Amino acid sequence: MIDPTVIIIVVGVAAFAISGVIAGTRQDANILTVLVLGVVTAIGGGTVRDIILNIPVFWVGDFSVVWLAILASLVAFIFAPLFRKKLWKVLIYADAIGVAFFSVAAINKTLALGHTGEVAVIMGFVTACTGGILRDLLTGRPPMVIASEELFVTPVLIGGIIYVLLLDIAPNYAAQWPIVAICFIVGFRAIAIERGLQFPKWLRMRPGKRAE
Amino acid sequence: MIDPTVIIIVVGVAAFAISGVIAGTRQDANILTVLVLGVVTAIGGGTVRDIILNIPVFWVGDFSVVWLAILASLVAFIFAPLFRKKLWKVLIYADAIGVAFFSVAAINKTLALGHTGEVAVIMGFVTACTGGILRDLLTGRPPMVIASEELFVTPVLIGGIIYVLLLDIAPNYAAQWPIVAICFIVGFRAIAIERGLQFPKWLRMRPGKRAE
Amino acid sequence: MIDPTVIIIVVGVAAFAISGVIAGTRQDANILTVLVLGVVTAIGGGTVRDIILNIPVFWVGDFSVVWLAILASLVAFIFAPLFRKKLWKVLIYADAIGVAFFSVAAINKTLALGHTGEVAVIMGFVTACTGGILRDLLTGRPPMVIASEELFVTPVLIGGIIYVLLLDIAPNYAAQWPIVAICFIVGFRAIAIERGLQFPKWLRMRPGKRAE
């Protein structure tokens, strides 16, 4: 049987690489430029995770993840024209899937290193969001994680907290909880996108008080 | 008596968290989004400092600073409406206070590790500015440290140099110099903001020669 | 005889510092602001390289590179007015030279640490581009590496791959290959800038499919 961790990483890397390539389409970019965007989006989050945790950066020791990101980027480059009118949607769903898988993978890695649940939640969030932040900054957009009107932070943050709590409360089901967490994060974000979910007014900053 | 280092960190973290929350108001953001902005602004600079100095990142070992940042962000979220028309001013003063306290804290930490005064000055500057740079990039603004028309770099850089020199010349007053340095940086920046201080013309780039 | 590595670092640092100062002219900045931009551009790439490779950051141990960056920034500040109408061109050529020298220096350092050629190519690319990316983000521009219409990624990426292959195939000429690689990268980029080189259409993303 395939190690579930491998599946999580493969899906996360592929999803982020695709989102990076699609983000590059705005720039009328060539194949190498979008390849760089795909790879940076796919491995950026894990790189920052390993640097903060003070462990060797994962792809320096095992380059296969980079090859996977390159491959996924090439596939995305070839098939992007098929989604001509729905690229934005593919981008945010690819991002949502990448965020969910990377959050779970980073929480697992952080807990395995003996850190507390609080640190694991933060590392899950940072790992899940950094790749997309780098992608957005490199393509000259304000980072989606903060700028998007749909709920973005909420699903991954709440999902991470729930996942860590589940692992703590019922460790016997440690093999099932990742699936629950990933479905929760992707599902929550999908509903947020499709339904335009919002916080109640008293939990939002109101337009009247922008700092300019 | 309370350790002065703790006071410095508490004030710095709270000031930066507040500035992050206020920066988030531009985005019509919800409570979790501004919380993320507050925490990233508050712990971003110290995180980069520890990574460059190749020591364990402070909040991975001691999570209390993150709780403090979360608490300060929530308080800022609740009280922001009271400052409706003066948010921009609150933001730049909170930033100035955070910059001053973090600069001194980072110089202390760098010198305690046995590095030279030159390295300490740079680390003070990097630590003081990185949180604000991340805040500005995440909210889609050009970083204040470079873009703001008021003097920004000058107070923190000169203040850091003076602080390191004072510690070297009169180490007996090592307990007093942080207060001097913080007052100098905040005071200099306040005057720069209120009076629109500028360098003499021959020390500025002139408009005629923009690179486009 | 002077160590070739020293020459490579001196030229790279000076070129990047100049590009940072020129980028700062857009902001009507003062001398300290452009100094910060010059230094960040010059040492940013190497800093990220050392952090990813998990080795001590080069300028923390040996501050002379920072002094060099400060000196080059001051010189650029003084002489920038002479190039009033050609600043943009000076900027992109300074950037091209910095990219070429830093790519080679980073590949050498990565291989010397015992990492594989693939990792060395990536580290050469990351080191060469990060300083310029930080410069562009700090001055509020979309990073040139992705946004520029001329070929940017291609010369440094292909040049890095060729350099690693040459070192592998004919290690006896290890002293000559850096010169070949640097000339290739600068020359390729110069032709791309002057001739407006482009990939054939089927290797570019077409305007019709922008994600918005």
Automatic annotation (TrEMBL), chains A, B, C:
Domain of life: Archaea
Keyword Membrane: yes
Membrane-crossing segments per the record: 6-24, 31-52, 64-83, 90-107, 119-138, 150-170, 176-197
InterPro entries the UniProt entry points to: Gly_transporter (IPR005115)
GO CC entries: plasma membrane
Protein name (record): Trimeric intracellular cation channel family protein
Recorded topology in the membrane: Multi-pass membrane protein
PANTHER family, sorted: INNER MEMBRANE PROTEIN, UPF0126 INNER MEMBRANE PROTEIN YADS-RELATED
Species whose genome carries this gene: Methanogenium organophilum
Lineage: Archaea, Methanobacteriati, Methanobacteriota, Stenosarchaea group, Methanomicrobia
Keywords, in A-Z order: Cell membrane, Membrane, Transmembrane, Transmembrane helix
Record domain Glycine transporter: where: 9-80, 93-166
Keyword hit for Amino-acid biosynthesis: no
Compartment list: Cell membrane
Major place of residence: membrane
